[in-house]
Each structure stands twice: as C-alpha cells, then as structure tokens.
Design goal:
By secondary structure, this protein is of the alpha/beta class. The protein is 37% helix and 19% strand. It contains 13 helices and 14 strands. The strands form 3 sheets. Strands 2-1-5-6-7-8 form a 6-stranded parallel beta sheet, sandwiched between helices. The longest helix has 15 residues.
Length: 316
C-alpha cells in the first residue's frame, strides 16, 4: 500500500471483552493509525454468532461462513489486510485473500505451539507445521522481538519481521493513586491465569510481604482455592490497572512461553521493576537494563528486584 491515507482492515479472533496483550496491542495500533489519518476497521467475533472456546470460555470463537466474512470485508473495501490471529476468522480471511490474490500480513502474538503442548500434550512440531502453512502465505509475519523473529526463521517461517510494542505513557506512569496493603513488599502478577503462564510458579515462592494476582483464566478457581492467602483482584484495565502496577514493589512474570509480555512494559512505565526468567520476551524487554532482574531462580529475581531504583525502571 502506497496511499498516504489508507483503508486498513484488521481481522482478529481476539477482541473485547477479552483483556490481554493482543487486544491492547490492537487497540493501540488502531489509535495510532487513525491519528496518522488512516481509516481502520476491525472484524472480530463480536460481529457473528460465537461459542466459547473449549477449556477457555473467556475466548469466543466466531461461527460464520466464508461468504458472511467476505460480505463484511467487501462492505469496508480495504486497501490493506492484516490478519492478527490464527483462529477461525483468521483462517477464513486467509482463504479469501488467497482466492482474490490479495497481499496480506499476519502477526505472531503468542507461542501457540507451546501453549497447546502445555494444555493438551500435542507435540510442538505438529503445531508449528500448521502455523508455517498459515503464515508463509503472507507478505510478512510481524513478530514482537528480535529473539522471536530469529526463532521463527530457524523454524522455517518465510517472512518474519519485527513489530515491537509500546504503551501509553500518559496512562502508565509512576505518579498517581496507590492501593493500600497490609504488608510490604507487594509482589504482583498480571495476566491470564492459565497453565502456560506458570502462575503457580509465582504463588509457590517463599517471599516476604504479600502476593497479588490480577487477571482471569481457566486456572483461577483451582489456584485461588490452593493459595487463598494471595489477594485476587480479577480483571482490571485502564486507570485501575495503572494504579495496581504503581502499588506493587515488584511485578513477577513467571511465563517462559510469551513472545513479548506487554505487562512488563506497562509495569516498568509505572516505575515497578520486573522479576522474570531469562527467556525470550524478558530477554528483549528487560535486556541488560535496570528495568528488572532475570534469574533462573525466580525467587532470587524477585528479591533482587526490590533493590532497583523506580526512576531507573521508568527510564527503561
């Protein structure tokens, strides 16, 4: 697309009412594109009948025919097409684009093969083969960090390109209201509560002070029953989420399968350091900075992060 003002269509199986990094990334992307004068449209499961994803009811899967999706696409008449997810809508949009010989881009938001392996035991090689077929038809597959781009290239993906992430620094900032805590320090987890996120690895740590958990997911009921001493805050967004980050002493990121981890950037923007494993995602987001501590022993990372300067964390 070479027009200065474009009609950009995004097709995504992930959208409201989900609260996650993919949805926040797409919202910020739309906002920035429209500020540049482009017209955007997003097709999501909200436009169709849908059903809850098995084992993950927070996620809706669209029930639509290829013809129904074609009519929605044609009503907008896009100059450019971006397929954000590899779900039912994503596969149908890909089929339509190939039939019409339209160029399109895709995005690699999640390490889906590792998630499927963790939840269902499906070999990662099988799922990566399926994803290569999906993404290699695109002009570019947009990935959030250099480490993920390199990993996709090594796995046979044809056109991975870097598309990094950002957060609204006027919202996520160190100054503002804070929540009260009975004890200090406060160690915080924010994100989906699911087996692949390893929230239990955080909750089992022997740490001083309090543990707070914000988010929702299929593992919440089990973990909340097992760890009732933690403070369970549910899903938060906007100002409430920024207030939560500011209130914590350390944001703990126990996942080893994320492609990026937008919550780490949101936390650091609020001045709260991150404790994480030294794996893709944290390696790129934290790097060698003073924004957080990476250690193979997550407890050690949490304790060391308490000593970081919140001003230096915000600078990162």
């Amino acid at each position: 697309c070479r027009k200065s003002r474009m009609r950009i269509l995004i097709v995504s199986d992930a959208w409201e009412p989900q609260v996650n990094g993919v949805v926040r990334t797409l919202k910020m992307t739309r906002r920035e594109l429209e500020l540049k004068g482009h017209q955007t449209e997003l097709i999501s499961p909200l436009g169709f009948r849908s059903f809850p994803c098995p084992t993950y009811p927070e996620i809706s899967l669209a029930l639509c025919t290829t013809g129904q999706l074609e009519r929605q696409i044609d009503r907008f008449a896009p100059d450019c097409l971006h397929i954000a997810t590899e779900g039912p809508l994503g596969w149908k949009a890909r089929r339509i684009a190939l039939k019409r010989q339209w160029p399109f881009t895709t995005a690699y938001h999640s390490r889906f093969p590792e998630y499927v392996a963790a939840r269902f035991g499906v070999p990662v090689g099988w799922t990566y083969a399926l994803l290569r077929r999906f993404h290699n038809a695109a002009r570019a597959t947009l990935a959030p960090t250099p480490a993920i781009v390199a990993d996709l290239k090594a796995r046979g993906f044809a056109h991975p390109r870097l598309w990094s992430r950002g957060v609204d620094l006027s919202l996520f900032k160190p100054d503002g209201e804070r929540l009260e805590s009975a004890q200090r320090p406060v160690f915080l987890y924010v994100g989906r509560i699911a087996v692949e996120k390893q929230v239990d690895a955080f909750l089992r740590l022997d740490l001083p002070g309090e543990k707070w958990v914000a988010g929702e997911g299929p593992a919440r009921r089990r973990l909340q029953a097992e760890f009732p001493e933690a403070r369970w805050l549910g899903v938060l967004d906007g100002q409430d989420l920024a207030r939560l980050y500011r209130s914590a002493d350390v944001m703990v990121f126990p996942s080893v399968t994320d492609t990026f981890g937008l919550v780490m950037v949101e936390s650091m923007a609020c001045g709260t350091p991150v404790a994480a494993f030294p794996v893709p995602g944290p390696l790129d987001v934290i790097g060698n900075s003073q924004g957080g501590v990476m250690h193979a022993n997550l407890r050690e990372a949490c304790l060391q992060a308490l000593n970081l300067s919140r001003e230096r964390v915000r600078q990162r």
